[in-house]
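Reopening closed ticket. The problem is back. First fold of the pair:
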Amino acid sequence: MRPMIERDEHRRGEQAARPPSYSRVGLGIMAHSSEANLLGNVHGGDIMKLADSTAGAVAHRHSGGPAVTAAMDEMTFLAPVHVGDIIKTYAQVNWAGTSSMEIGVRVEAQPWGDAADSPVHVASAYFVFVAIDGDGRPRPVPPLATESPDDVRRQREAEIRRSHRLARKAEIDQGREV
């Protein structure tokens, strides 16, 4: 499918725009008892770590080099993950700025012993990554070339989350000046 932006808008400096499909990543693991919490389910922190790792791979691919987690904007847990479940994460770039990117992650779980069971959507998260150069300073990232109506929706929603983050920070900073 052809990206939904014009060719002249494909450049930020010398970098051509990249579609979400360019850097989309899926990872999977089997949950072990070492990841269990006191209720016998997989600890939320382990799910967060897997989601962050998946998002990091996407950020590295999209930006063409190192990128670090700057924020986790939101993580919602929808259902428990049980020891023995196969956990799969799917991630893609939702928005790209000058040096930062929002990566959306979907986490699914499926019982390991029954392939007939449909995977269950167990969590969603939004991470902000900043691409860095060899000195640890922010570096430019390619713009995002949306490919589908879902990509356009994800980008619009990411822009809303970004504006809320910036407004919250400005209000907190303003309150600290008093």
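Second fold of the pair, where the issue appears:
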Amino acid sequence: MTGPQLRAILILPANVLGTIPLGLLWWEGGLPPRLALPGAALIAGACFAVGIGLMATTIRLFHEQGRGSLAPWSPTRELVVRGPYRHVRNPMISGVLFNLAGEALAFGSPAIGVWFGIVLLANALYIPLWEEPGLEKRFGDAYRRYQAHVPRWLPRLWPWPPAPPNSVPPGTSA
């Protein structure tokens, strides 16, 4: 893992999923936090498994395929359209949201539930207003084609099969 990647992880997910939720738990009644009912803990565990899996996979893909990091100040240099990106355009944020939902359930924390809503709203605004125009500018038609076939939030059931880099799109001539 490179310096920019590690720095991005320590600044973004570590604060969104660690520092801020710990502060909220302290504000709600101190630490150590109480654990929720066993049923909620099972659902929370499933949320953590999905969230951590998505985050680990996307961070690896950003590094290996995208040659960059998850941070806006150190973006990928290549468009990433493998793995979970063939189903949904924002699996990293989905992973973060799954983890926050897991934290809110595991600790029975309404404050973390509100934080989940704030993170969701912030990304619902940031992604279409800032991130997607930047991706369109950097990757042009390749990103527009990807955007037309892969949804922003709700995953496709079947993976999108991106065209090979030098192929001609259907309905056009070489």
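Update: turned out to be a display glitch only; the data is intact. The CA atoms of residues 23 and 46 lie 24 Å apart. The helical segments are 3-11, 13-29, 38-64, 91-107, 110-149. Please close again.
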